[in-house]
Amino acid sequence: MPTLPPSRKPVRPPGRGPRRAGPPKARINRKEYASDQDVRWCPGCGDYAILASVQRLMPQLGVKRENVVFVSGIGCSSRFPYYMNTYGMHSIHGRAPTIATGLKASRPDLDVWVVTGDGDALSIGGNHLIHLLRRNVNLQLLLFNNQIYGLTKGQYSPTSEIGKVTKSSPFGSITPPFNPISLTLGASASFVARTADRDTKHLTKVLKRAHTHSGSAFVEVYQNCNIYNDGAFFDFTERATKADRTVYLEHGKPMLFANGKQGIRLDGFRTSVFDIEGGDFSVNDAIVYDETSLELAGIVSRMSQRPDMPRPFGVFFCEERPTYEQLLWEQISAITERQGQGDLDALLYAADTWTIQ
What we know:
Layout: H1 47-57, E1 68-72, E2 87-90, H2 96-106, E3 111-117, H3 118-124, H4 126-135, E4 139-145, H5 180-186, E5 191-196, H6 200-212, E6 216-222, H7 234-237, H8 239-245, E7 246-249, E8 256-257, E9 262-267, E10 270-275, H9 294-301, E11 311-318, H10 324-339, H11 344-348
Parallel strand pairs: 1-2, 1-3, 3-4, 4-6, 5-6, 7-11
Antiparallel strand pairs: 5-11, 8-9, 9-10
Helix pairs in contact: 1-6, 3-4, 5-9
């Protein structure tokens, strides 16, 4: 009966005695996860902060480096595997989810991460993204969203706002942008979150939550492109405006912002802002966020499309359910137990075949 593939462990050569106890192992730190490659992003790019946060996080996860794989597509973000001292693959445009799905299906023991961008994942790769999420493949997918095509020098992307003037939209984009959070919730993702490159503490917290989740963990990371779209998210990341323009989602806690002076309530199926003091509503009227509610997550995700509302950050939705590779290996085991090992030749020459005269 087939079983889940075992982790690859080094085999000790025969004829050797027991391993002698040596000095205690040095604690693994960020440097162990940094490769010897020169990091080639534009100076000031938000990708640097994300890379540093991931490298600092990895030693905390308790996963051996030889069991970690980073898979990327095409774009600025997709250079990520070069800079991680783990296994990795720089694959083709939009197909990182497909490569990662095959890898995770054949080697469920591996810790697989997908790194992609808004152009790579939501344009040519949109179909691959939604099917990975609905299948609930057990991996982490980080989407770096800078609302621009950076690698190809500044064309508007699937997340660029209406009116965006770029080299490919000289009179302003007329295309409504994707909302990545709403899109992935609609694709039945079992974990959906948002964070930002400049808030490294929150970024690390969200990535750690994503890693503990069993299933497809989608994390949108607002990432500044200081060359072609500088300041796109400064309202939500800079000290002068951040408190009034962001609301952090915490399970079981009220949705408050502006240093606790304002809250978010539901007016039917629509969110609205109210003042805590001197108004008609109190803290008790604020939405108590429930990350297990798909309906609430959908409503709150739409706040991102309203300029009168603060931008939500944190875990929008989390649901535990069987993973794709778990169900796949259970199915293979059940069939093998019932029918025995398969016959490839019999499969190829069976059923609907015919001879052309």
